[in-house]
Design a protein that fits this description.
Helices cover 39% and strands 24% of the residues. By secondary structure, the chain is an alpha/beta fold. The protein has a five-stranded mixed beta sheet. Helix 1 runs antiparallel to helix 2. InterPro entries: PTrfase/Anion_transptr, PTS_EIIA_type-2_dom, PTS_SugarTrans_NitroReg.
């Protein structure tokens, strides 16, 4: 079970259209940087890792991306869930030269390396549940997104 103080969750609904993956990563990572949850090196590290190890995952009716990077760039455990009004192309995880239109970005900032796999498993469990995803996609308010997502994470951990 997850304690409230273990990880900071930031909910965000983005109405603007990003011109590319890097712009989406910049905006999402900046939310973590603004809160002091990551180091200045985090934004470049996340973009570099995404180029080498893409994180887009295609499900039947939607796609998500779970960008993350090494713990040396992180100050405190956190996640941003950024729900996009207009999808952005991300490279597909484990597939060279395949792309998917991502509706949701969940950016991880994990300080304790041992927690990364459990968080990733929890995220996959959440995003395999189309009802939960549809609920998130319908959320219009950042606070509601944050609260809903935090509850899903707690249930899945």
């Amino acid at each position: 079970m997850l304690n409230d103080n273990e990880i900071k969750i930031i909910g965000q609904r983005t109405e603007n259209k990003y011109k590319d993956t890097n712009e989406a990563l910049d905006f999402t990572a900046q939310l973590l940087l603004n809160e002091g949850l990551v180091k200045d090196s985090y934004i470049e590290a996340i973009k570099k890792r995404e180029k080498t190890f893409p994180t887009g995952l295609q499900f039947e009716n939607y796609a998500i991306a779970i960008p993350h990077t090494d713990s040396e760039h992180v100050n405190s455990e956190a996640m941003v869930i950024n729900i996009l009004e207009r999808p952005v192309k991300f490279g597909q995880m484990g597939a060279e030269d395949l792309y998917t239109d991502v509706n949701i970005i969940v950016m991880l900032a994990i300080k304790n390396k041992e927690k990364q796999v459990p968080y990733l498993k929890a995220l996959i469990e959440i995003f395999q549940d189309e009802e939960k995803v549809n609920m998130l996609l319908k959320c219009q308010n950042n606070d509601i997104i944050e609260k809903t997502f935090k509850n899903y994470i707690k249930e899945s951990m």
